[in-house]
Prior knowledge:
The structure holds two protein chains of two kinds.
Chain A: H1 2-17, E1 27-32, H2 38-53, E2 57-62, H3 67-79, E3 84-88, H4 96-104, E4 108-112, E5 122-125, H5 128-142, E6 147-153, H6 158-173, E7 177-184, H7 191-205, E8 212-215, H8 218-230, E9 239-241, H9 247-254, E10 260-265, H10 268-284, H11 289-292, E11 297-299, E12 303-305
Parallel strand pairs in A: 1-2, 1-3, 3-4, 4-5, 5-11, 6-7, 6-8, 8-9, 9-10
Antiparallel strand pairs in A: 10-12
Helix pairs in contact in A: 2-10, 3-4, 5-6, 7-8
Chain B: H1 2-24, H2 31-56, H3 64-80, H4 85-108, H5 114-133, E1 138-139, H6 144-151, E2 153-154, E3 157-158, H7 159-177, H8 179-189, H9 191-196, H10 201-227, E4 229-230, H11 238-249, H12 260-279, H13 284-311
Antiparallel strand pairs in B: 1-4, 2-3
Amino acid sequence: MPRSVLAVVLTLALTSLSPAPVAAATKLGIVAFQMSAETHARVANAAAEAAKAKGWSVTVLNSRGAAPDHAAQVADLIRGGVDGIILAMGKVQQLEAELQEAQKKGIAVITVSSGTGKYTLFDVNADEFVVGAKIATYLLGRLNYQGNILMQRYEQHVGTRIRGKVMDIELSENTGVKVLATHTMARSASWQDDVRKGMEALLLKHKGEVNAIWASFDGQAFIIDDILQQMGFKKGQVLLTGVDGGKEAYKRIRNPESLFTATIDIPYEKMAREAVDAMEKIVVKKLKRTDVVQGPFLFVEPVLIDSTNVPRE
Amino acid sequence: MRSALGRYGTVLALAVLVLVLSLAADNFLSLGNLANVLKNASFMAILALGFNLALITSELDLSFANVASLCSIIAAVLLYGGYAVPVGIAACLGLGAACGLANGLLVTRFRIPSLIATLATGTMASGFAFMLTGGVDYVGKLPAPFLFLGRGQILGVPVLIVWTASAVLVALFVVKETRLGAHMVATGEAEEAARLAGIRVKRMKTLGLTLSGFLAGLGGLLLTAHLSSSNVTIAGGFLMSGIAAVLLGMTTIEVGKPNVAGTVVGTLIIGVLGNGLTLMGAQYYYQDIILGLIILGSVGVSASQMMRAAFGVSH
């Protein structure tokens, strides 16, 4: 009997959850690769908001970091007859079969921070190599090209990995800066604890020797900032940088107690809005792709933020 | 009538679900979409089938998703290294079976509860996958004959559906029609009685876990071929959904027991729900909420077997 009840509950849930169909509205599917990652969610949510503001019918899907789900969701959207798909940090190369089908059916696919592919229109991208170079150049410059640093890396994400590699290249050109130690974050649900434990150990080991800390993304830098404050460090004693930007980063840069020095602001919301605007031009206004964006990328400029240009509260 | 409803209620739920979705969601009932549903559900079906076979012998295999990912990595590493396709396939399936065998030996020889043993081997499998790749994805560049395993069609039917149907039919035959299958079931239902009846229960448990590992290898192989890529978490998302499919399957046909046909029904319900909700334009969080409801609804019926498998005690 409970099974019949379950069946009824599910049926009712299904029918009540489905939004009322919007006649003739443009149907947009947004697929975020991993909504639990803040940057993916920022892109997906901003794109959804921008599309809804245009009166479109929007379906947001979360692939939960799983490539098979990612492919299945894109296939489902194609079957559902969407007019366009936006992939947030998508895996374009792994979706080749599905994207080819989308192209055959005339469904426009625009990606954000996903790289380009044969069957997508273009990618809205900040270019991680540029991001990595900006923060590396900044940090080394602030050190006057001399001193000791710690590195907090994350190798299992392509963007953070690139930033680390670019930092390595810049370090090879600036031999006055020595990397005392590196902690590489494990990919796990408790990554915050991993960063805390790793950096605490390194800071205790190299007490008094550290001039700066490079973190591959802001989330790591915030944890390190808290450790430094608890250890009694004052602003300016140790330079600390991250990448991503956003309100929390600005708040810490402004905070006189915080050691967080600078970040690279990747304008994820702007990138999402650019993708939706381009989608409108191509799908609704029927402009040619080449009239909207030249080439396979629509680059947006990542901005270095420190105390000199941090937005006011 | 009441007993039939109890036994086939979940099958009925699937039928109702299909009916509702065919009315509510555009294109749901099209042949193309139904093939799409079956194709996308195939990975979950194969991995859940493995979990089901281990559970039949009253053992849990929590390593199957990580083992599938590691097997996928091995296939990709070898094929990228220029090894022949059969070598990649054999290594992938062989590694899966070896991981399953290792689980079986840990459980039966070293008397480590399967809950802990498979959690440990799953964690190790993940570690080895990171060690081999450094976390970097292998994308593209896989040979066409290999890709056919996951993307091809046979007489217009996606080959993934053929693989899944074959695995299900073989599993059904073994469990239902052979002495071996009967011994596996007897081991899971009453271990001590089975032992007294002369059944080699340790061997049956090892076999159940080895088959689970082998099917994890097959799942990893098909995922790699279908996506033309591999990464350390390629099958990670199937742990919860695979277990949910088996739990849901235990609510039907052979109620309260892990059973192959029920697992297929469970997989189809989850697959159909995911597809239907997307076609209807429902947001992603509803899919998680509904999957959670399904697990909650089915766990009451299947709790007894799961408790026995996890802790060796009846609920």
